[in-house]
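Researcher: I'd like a structural prediction for the single chain below. Treat it as a standalone chain; there are no partners to consider.
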Amino acid sequence: MAQAWRCAGLRWAADGPVLRWVGGRGSALTRGKRVAFAVAEGGVRTCVGARGHACPAQAAVPGRSTGARCEECARLDRAHSVAADTIADDPRPYRVYLAWFGPGLVKVGITAYARGDARLLEQGAVCFSWLGHGPLMAARRTEELLRAALRVPDRIPYARKRAVRAGLPESEAERLSEIAELHARAVGLGGWPESLTPEPFRGVDHAGVFGVAGTGPGPAAVAEVAELVAGGAVGGELVAAAGPDLHLATERGVVVLDTRLMTGWELVPAGGAPCAVPVRDFKGAAGVQDGLF
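Model: Treating it as a single chain, here is the predicted structure.
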């Protein structure tokens, strides 16, 4: 019987994305690598718990959930979350950033200073620039200032990010132009908190890291995995990766797999199995293993 693995999510390391497995191991994901796995027959997706603790009820969760948490564990997880705005007294310094995901898709956000650009890689930001740094509440007020004065959102659904990746401008200058203009407008606003230190525009482009511009990704994605199901399989060559998304070249074309759909399932090796899970088409388009693949 094949060894089963439980995915603990995707993290971006200095040299690229790594799929982590419960137990501490990881699988580095380099472009050109074959990614192939199946969901165990008769398997049930179970809650991954909260804040490093297992779900006491081992509750079943829907296949389409990207959080893979039951209602109670989701509540506990967000109860101590800066992203959910439930912590106001975090003493760490924070940075405010502008992130660009494609034409017309720009957001403002904050991240702990010590994390560097890890948060931007995790979100799939194709380009970004810092706006300033300071205490948490000053960063929050600056974020709200941009939302109110410039109507810049602080959240963009992943579905919209995926939809624009196939049409990214070829040149870095074009990709950076939108946030460069917005940065200039932002620093010209009045009402910035005095405790927030502004930062000059320094555009960072992740297109090459992700493989989503130029000749890197090959054909545009035609579909995305809607959910994993018991007995289903996914297999393809990795041609690009952005945020939690893997772009896999399969027998039906390039299909995007959101790795958050993998958590909570028991997964087994699939070898050369075809992609056999529910997908949504995009409109207009041996021995002891150290890892699952």
